[in-house]
Amino acid sequence: MSRFLRNPIAEILWFCLVSVLALAQFPEPLPKLNYTMIPDFFQLPPGEHFIEPAGVAVMDDGRLLLADTNNHRVLVYDVRERSYRTWAE
């Protein structure tokens, strides 16, 4: 009699463990991003806040567009002047 037939429960558990490990998709490590944090780059005025920001875009002239979905607006931030204005409905 083979050793696998002596303990069928252990054989089933071993098969399940090996199957799960074989099918598991281990996440790849995240790539190192090349960016620099700029302190106080952009701050909203007191009392202002984002509600469900949905996207960011950079225009050709360097302005940032920030979509603030539940506030129903787009913030346009001018990097050179360090100021912003809003487009709202």
Sequence-ordered SSE layout with sheet pairings:
Elements: H1 3-6, H2 8-23, E1 53-58, E2 64-68, E3 73-78, E4 83-88
Antiparallel strand pairs: 1-2, 2-3, 3-4
Features:
89 residues, alpha+beta, Thrombin, subunit H, elongated
Question: How does this structure look, described?
Answer:
The chain has one domain: Thrombin, subunit H, CATH 2.40.10. The chain is elongated, with a radius of gyration of 27 Å. A 4-stranded antiparallel β-sheet has the order 1-2-3-4, with no helix packed on it. It has 2 helices and 4 strands; from the N terminus they run ααββββ. The mean pLDDT is 77. Helices cover 22% and strands 26% of the residues.
Across the major sheet, the strand order is: 1-2-3-4
Give the strand content.
25-35%
CATH architecture: Beta Barrel
In terms of quaternary structure, the protein is single chain
Helicity range: 10-25%
For the record, the CATH class is Mainly Beta
Radius of gyration: 27 Å
**Mind summarizing the main beta sheet?**
4 strands, antiparallel
What sort of overall outline do the alpha carbons produce when their principal axes are compared?
elongated
Q: Spell the H/E element sequence.
A: HHEEEE
The chain-level structural class is: alpha+beta
Could you list the spans in which at least 5 consecutive residues all have pLDDT below 50? none
